[in-house]
Amino acid sequence: MLKVAACVMAFIMLLGLVSCRKNRVVNTSFYYWKTVYDTNVTEKRYFDTLGCKKLYMRIMDVDKGDNSAVPISPVTFKTALPNAVQVVPVVFVVNDVLKYQTHQQLNDLAGKIVYYVNGRIKLSGKKNYNELQLDCDWTRTTRDNYFYLLRQISANAGLKNKKLSATLRLHQLKNQKNSGIPPVDRVMLMCYNMGNLRKYGSQNSILEQSELEKYVGENLSNYPIPVDVGLPVFSWAVVFRQKQYAGISKRLHQENFSDQQTFKANGSSLYRVQRDLPNYGLLRGDEVRWEYLPASELLSAANYIQKYISSDTLNVIFFHLDEPTLKHYTYEDLEKTTAVFR
User: Fold this and answer.
1) pLDDT tens-place string over residues 88-131
2) Which of 60, 190, 197, 232 could disulfide-link to 74, CB 3.0 to 4.6 Å?
3) 274-296, pLDDT tens digit by residue?
4) Model confidence over 5-14: pLDDT tens digits?
């Protein structure tokens, strides 16, 4: 009888734990990383089918000009953003911009960023936004200036009642002592671009599970501010000339490699170019590494990361909303990936 009673008690306790457990609220969205915004039927279908409400839109890069930091390749709008879609403007700050800046120069830069962003948001057809995100691969030597810039942006009157978030690279997550914790409301952990893009070979520099596991774990579960997750749904063709990195060929797509007379397989992901292709910037003998993340590996990465997320509310953002790369994934692939975080 005692054994039965103990089992009943354990069952009741288990029910109590289950009933007290709250499902995590998971919001799905995409980055939009093009210089021109226009309506695209395929991209809209993915966005709507996955129930997205927000679009994380790159507004501009900030790079060094002749005398000061300047906006580079700002987004333009062929069509207005839909009324039902909230926009989160994203500004990419080149790390070198932050070197040797005085506080006065950073004060000026903060004001210019907020002013410029607000102007672009109006051009998008939106009257307002709730969050601004800064993207920067800051280092130990630029950390203090970057964090100062973030504080000045957050204090700017043009950002009143708005949240400020920042992207977080895996090395910044792991090396918290040197990298510091940015003074923002949330961070977006970029779970991609973790390998050595320039290294010759058949590795995948976008995401490899073994590399991911070197950085996440307790570093993520112990992070002191809420963490959102950015996952890759992009691909690229990395070019090597005489086994030396020669750049990325933006015109190549996966279907190009089905032409075996032009691209001869040289391993699992390497292809040797059989003739000069001036339209693609390729020479005979060049090797191209085609990189993308299969749906199964995307799901595996999500399953690993979710174990270390402690937030009750999470934003899962796919990089990025682009028809040629989205076709590698079905709606079900992306929904299944998002679902593991709930």
Assistant:
1) 999 999 999 999 899 999 999 999 999 999 999 999 999 999 99
2) 60
3) 999 999 999 999 999 999 999 99
4) 444 444 444 4
For residue 82 the two structure tokens come to 């839909």
Q: Where are the alpha helices (DSSP H) in the chain?
A: 2-20, 41-49, 103-123, 143-155, 170-174, 176-179, 209-215, 218-221, 295-306, 323-326, 331-339
Looking at residue 277, its pLDDT comes to: 96
Is pLDDT above 70 for 72? yes
3-state SS assignment for residue 60: strand
Q: What is the pLDDT of residues 162-218, one digit of tens each?
A: 999 999 999 999 999 999 999 999 999 999 998 788 999 988 999 999 999 999 999
Contact 272/263 with Cβ under 8 angstroms?
yes
74 and 123 in contact (C-beta within 8 Å)?
Answer: no
- In the numeric block, the tokens 């997320």 are attached to 309
The better pLDDT of the pair 11, 145 is held by 145
Following DSSP, what letter does each residue of 305-329 receive, concatenated?
A: HHTT---SEEEEEEE---HHHHTTS
Q: Are 136 and 146 in contact (CB under 8 A)?
A: yes
CA–CA separation, 16 vs 86, rounded Å?
38
Which of 241, 75, 64, 93 lies closest to 167 in space, CA to CA? 93
**CA 108, CA 77: separation in Å to the nearest integer?**
27
**Cα→Cα distances 5→9, 12, 17, 61, 233, Å:** 6, 11, 18, 65, 52
d(CA 132, CA 118): 10
Q: Backbone phi, then psi, for 17, in 5-degree steps?
A: -65, -40
